[in-house]
Amino acid sequence: MVQTKDISRPPKALVEGLSNIGSATATGELARLGVRNAQILGPLPYSTGKSICGPAITLQYMPMREDLYPLEEYRDPEKQLHRHALYHTQPGDVVVVDARGDMSSGVFGSMMLTYFKGRGGAGIVIDGVIRDVEEASKLDLGMWLRGVSPNHHTQAGIMPFAVNEPIACGGTLVMPGDIIIADDDGAVNVPIALAPQLLEKASGHVEWEEFTRIRLLEGGDLRKYYPLREDARAEYEEWRKAQG
What we know:
Elements (H helix, E strand, L loop, with lengths): L11 H7 L4 H10 L11 E2 L6 E12 L17 H7 L6 E5 L11 H9 L4 E4 L2 E2 L2 H4 L5 E4 L1 E2 L9 E6 L3 E3 L2 E3 L4 E5 L2 E5 L4 H23 L4 H4 L7 H11 L1
Parallel strand pairs: 2-3, 3-4, 4-6, 5-7
Antiparallel strand pairs: 1-6, 2-8, 2-11, 9-10, 11-12
Helix pairs in contact: 2-6
């Protein structure tokens, strides 16, 4: 019988706070905190206009080795390890998959993703591809992918190998339970230990950028408002008070 472990999920208030921070702000602030490789390179947004923030369920693929993953696994669906990653889904979770950048094996199809959506899953980040993209696109999931394929998950050269273990997704180390922030700019991994610091630093950044955007749209001086110069600080603080 296949057994896999669940993840430790962060406090909901932490995730909700980080959901107001875009991927661009997250990578900038994480760099200042010493993490310079937070972007998950390769997967691109396949759900334009969608943004997600949630803890990572991880799934690792490895090169196919038939003695470890015989083709008759389809006779017993419960031997399909990629199913077991989805069994852990709780509302707001994000499934992150190291599929080795493989472009020929669809990690999930529409039925698996429909189950994931029904369990409350927020989105998927896959260094690889899925199948049934037309049906999958109707689910209103966040999807960051390298592409699509008509093939099923082990039809070509990879096999699912581990669930909720550390993975390298798009060249970035993702630990189970880390927080994923993803939007139209891409997907970013937030190390769970740094998440509270990121929230504190990035929240102020988001606020002054909102103020700056208003002033620039009104014709304000770029040199004064971006980045926010000291002689604009009092004006910004007054604006903050007016916002309540």
